Amino acid sequence: MDRSVPAQVQSVERALTVLDLLAEQGELGVTELAAALDVHKSTAFRLVTALESRGLVTQVGDRGKYRLGLGVLRLAAATTGRLDVSREGREVCEGLAAELGETINVAILDDGAAVNVLQEFGTASVGSRNWIGRRTPLHATSSGKVLLAHATPAVRKGVLAGPLDRLTDATVTDPQALAMQLATVKDAGWASTAEELEVGLTAVAAPIWSGDGRVVAAISASGPSYRLQVTQFPAVAARLVAGAREISRRLGYYAAP
Predict the structure, then answer these.
(1) How far apart are CA 57 and CA 205, in angstroms?
(2) I need a surface site. Which of 87, 124, 190, 232 has the fewest CB within 10 A?
(3) Over the stretch 242-256, which tens digit does the pLDDT of each residue have?
(4) Which stretches make up the HTH iclR-type domain (predicted)?
(5) Which range scores top for mean pLDDT: 22-31, 166-175, 206-215?
(6) Lowest mean pLDDT among 26-40, 92-106, 120-134, 150-164
(7) Where are the domains of the chain?
């Protein structure tokens, strides 16, 4: 063993090599894997057993051979889904930006934050900032509230456990108040924020669904509070919900959100 490489890191590297080998060869036995990795058969067996427990490899009947498992497809689908949202959402976002005149963003949930992966500027949003790649707090953005409302119980619990940073005087920092808002978001089918992230900025968002019935992103319209006013939220939300439904349809989701 290379003493310069921590044992745990080396195990991870070997496990990844197993996946690469199976991707290239299709099926391999423990003896073949051990030879390719230059390790003892018992080490190779422990690696494939660990990978098998996660569904990343599967044994081929009783032949002693292993191949990639369905868990690999699950991981690939997570990445592909994000790419699909950007690709399938662009035309819809362009249309909404032209219609509403405001900046349209698509955001995904990533490690406790909303991250914008697609943006289109509206006719009225000249000079607006680029939000692509920016991480924004879930509790203070319309997209974040949509994503949080449809997140797993564990994710919601983690966010509601706080602390909820106060970014403006309007930011919701009380966990119970936020929990009530999230319930309303699920019932209404859209979320909004009025100067909760930044003073003078308002936004409305709706959920985007994947083919397997999960909310994988949120589409939002944002603009200055003097132009995108609270009284306009329901009408803007209706257009966003329609746009989100079209993107969802393109992602394979056919039931009405």
Answers:
(1) 39
(2) 87
(3) 999 999 988 888 664
(4) 9-70
(5) 166-175
(6) 120-134
(7) 7-68, 76-250
- Domain 7-68: assigned CATH number: 1.10.10.10
- Reported pTM: 0.68
Class of domain 76-250: alpha beta
CA 97-138-185 angle, to 5 degrees, is 75
Instruction: Quickly tell me which residue has 């959100």 as its tokens.
Output: 257
**Which residues, 6 or more positions from 203, have their beta carbon under 8 angstroms from its beta carbon?**
141, 142, 143, 192, 193, 197, 220, 221, 222, 223, 228
For 122, 133, 232, 240, the CA distances from 109, given in Å and listed in that order, are: 24, 12, 26, 18
pLDDT of residue 128: 61
CA-based R_g, the chain, Å: 23
CA pseudo-torsion sign 145, 143, 235, 169 = positive
Q: Which residue has the tokens 């009783």?
A: 62
